[in-house]
């Protein structure tokens, strides 16, 4: 019998509480948020500025000033919802008592893919609708900026399994 399965049966615990995947940081506040919040702001700002420069958009400073709070908020909301989806999938698999150890690679990574994809799609759609609504009117620019943010700021860290 697998060691984790024996531990789970012995203590009556259905979920593994020793392993803590990276995406769980989106669900539970911790001191790491003091690093995560400014880091996400910096990455969002960098991606937005580089994408605007590449597209040759005029008034970049004003667009950044008006859109970055929404971009940052949309990113966190999207990442949180992606993490919830991943957690739901893990709970669903645990409810079916599958013998596959989902907490080891590639199990964690495969379960995180839908969460990362959901986050990316939400970042694109919500940035397109809310972040640039008041500062840009060119639909092509809005599409390109939203796509760049979705692709480069999706929570790829959710794909990395952590062992504890």
What features would you describe in this structure?
This protein is mainly α. It contains 5 helices and no strands. It has one domain (20-159). The two termini are 21 Å apart. α2 packs across α3, α3 (60-95) runs antiparallel to α4 (107-131) and α4 (107-131) packs antiparallel against α5 (139-153).
Q: Summary?
A:
66% of the residues lie in helices and 0% in strands. It has 164 residues and is an all-alpha fold. Residues 4-21 have low confidence and may be disordered.
Mean pLDDT over all positions: 81
| Number of individual domains | 1
How big is the Rg? 19 Å
Task: Give the number of DSSP strands.
Answer: 0
CA-based shape:
elongated
**Major β-sheet annotation:** none
| Secondary-structure element order, N to C | HHHHH
What is the first-to-last residue Cα distance?
21 Å
Name the beta content range. Answer: under 5%
- Continuous helix count: 5
Unreliable stretches (pLDDT < 50, length at least 5) are: 4-21
Helix content: 55-70%
Key attributes of the depicted protein:
164 residues, mainly alpha
Mind sketching the topology for me?
Blueprint: H1 3-11, H2 33-55, H3 60-95, H4 107-131, H5 139-153
């Amino acid at each position: 019998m697998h060691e984790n399965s024996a531990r789970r049966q012995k203590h009556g615990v259905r979920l593994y509480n020793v392993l803590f995947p990276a995406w769980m940081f989106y669900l539970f506040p911790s001191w790491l948020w003091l690093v995560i919040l400014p880091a996400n702001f910096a990455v969002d700002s960098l991606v937005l500025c580089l994408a605007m420069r590449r597209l040759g958009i005029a008034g970049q400073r004003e667009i950044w000033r008006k859109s970055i709070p929404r971009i940052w908020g949309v990113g966190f909301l999207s990442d949180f919802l992606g993490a919830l989806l991943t957690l739901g999938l893990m709970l669903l698999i645990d409810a079916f008592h599958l013998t596959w150890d989902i907490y080891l690679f590639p199990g964690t990574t495969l379960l995180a893919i839908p969460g990362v994809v959901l986050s990316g799609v939400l970042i694109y759609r919500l940035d397109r609708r809310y972040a640039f609504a008041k500062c840009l009117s060119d639909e092509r620019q809005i599409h390109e900026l939203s796509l760049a943010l979705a692709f480069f700021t999706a929570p790829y860290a959710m794909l990395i399994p952590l062992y504890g």
